[in-house]
């Protein structure tokens, strides 16, 4: 029995074993989500880009719903550095979209910015592009072609298959060199960040939501202070001086 026939029997047996998998179970089997992409914030320029994205989303929702009223983006100034910067950039981006924006909250629709950050396990796997997928696909097609041509010659398709695998291996190597070694890929460098941000911008008219947009981003763990820490609170405590006059002591 030649190697090709042996391989065919092995594939058939594997298919039979898969077909014998149990139909019933006490609990659902966990599955993975399909691969997706998520922006990783690594610079203030990225903050500007997501602010512009939010502004374009809000603009598409609000074009005919403002009724002559302006928008107001409050900036209390006691939030994380990222949130404080995002509010400023969002204000600029809304103006650039041609929307009326007021520095006064009176008679304006407030853009409510909500921010949450979460920390996950540090050793999560990075499920992105894996080099070798194209090679595996070509090898599979080559095997199918060889089985189909088995009646002609046991070596049918071997030469063409070797050439195909060599070409694809070259493509895979170039992909690795371009995306990883030379840093030109679409995927961010470094491990998968532990920190993830949920950022929401919403506009309401009294109790009715006019627009609400939520996006999720990675935050660089090394820049945690920009995303986690709030500025220290300042408390004014009145004290009595030696001369009996009242003064204020700023305590941080």
Description:
This protein has 252 residues and is an alpha/beta fold. It has 2 domains: 40-121 and 194-251; 132-192, no CATH class. Helices cover 38% and strands 20% of the residues. The protein contains 6 helices and 7 strands, in the order H-E-H-E-H-E-H-H-E-E-H-E-E. It has helices at 3-19, 44-62, 81-96, 133-148, 158-181, 224-228; strands at 40-41, 71-72, 109-119, 195-205, 208-219, 235-240, 246-251. The strands form 2 sheets. A 5-stranded mixed β-sheet has the order 1-5-4-3-2. It has a two-stranded antiparallel sheet with strand order 6-7. Strand 2, helix 3 (81-96) and strand 3 (109-119) form a beta-alpha-beta unit. Helix 2 crosses helix 3 (81-96). It is extended.
Features:
single chain; 252 residues; alpha/beta; two-stranded antiparallel ribbon; 20% strand
């Amino acid at each position: 029995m030649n190697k090709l026939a042996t391989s065919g029997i092995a594939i058939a047996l594997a298919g039979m074993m898969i077909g014998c998998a149990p139909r019933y179970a006490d609990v659902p089997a966990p599955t993975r989500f399909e691969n997706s992409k998520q922006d990783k914030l690594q610079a203030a320029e990225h903050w500007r880009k997501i602010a512009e994205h939010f502004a374009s989303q809000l603009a598409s929702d609000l074009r005919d719903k403002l009724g002559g009223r302006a928008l107001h983006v409050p900036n209390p100034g006691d939030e994380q550095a990222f949130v404080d910067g995002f509010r400023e950039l969002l204000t600029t981006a809304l103006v650039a979209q041609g929307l009326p924006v007021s520095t006064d909250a009176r008679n304006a629709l407030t853009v409510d910015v909500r921010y949450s950050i979460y920390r996950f396990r540090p050793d999560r796997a990075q499920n992105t592009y894996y080099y070798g997928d194209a090679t595996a696909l070509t090898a599979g097609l080559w095997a199918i072609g060889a089985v189909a041509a088995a009646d002609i010659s046991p070596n049918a398709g071997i030469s063409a298959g070797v050439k195909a695998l060599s070409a694809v291996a070259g493509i895979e190597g170039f992909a690795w060199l371009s995306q990883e070694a030379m840093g030109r890929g679409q995927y961010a460098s470094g491990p998968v960040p532990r920190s993830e941000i949920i950022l929401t911008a919403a506009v309401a008219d009294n109790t009715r939501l006019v627009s609400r947009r939520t996006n999720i981003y990675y935050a660089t763990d090394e820049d945690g202070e920009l995303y986690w820490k709030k500025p220290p609170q300042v408390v004014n405590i009145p004290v009595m001086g030696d001369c009996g006059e009242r003064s204020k002591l700023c305590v941080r």
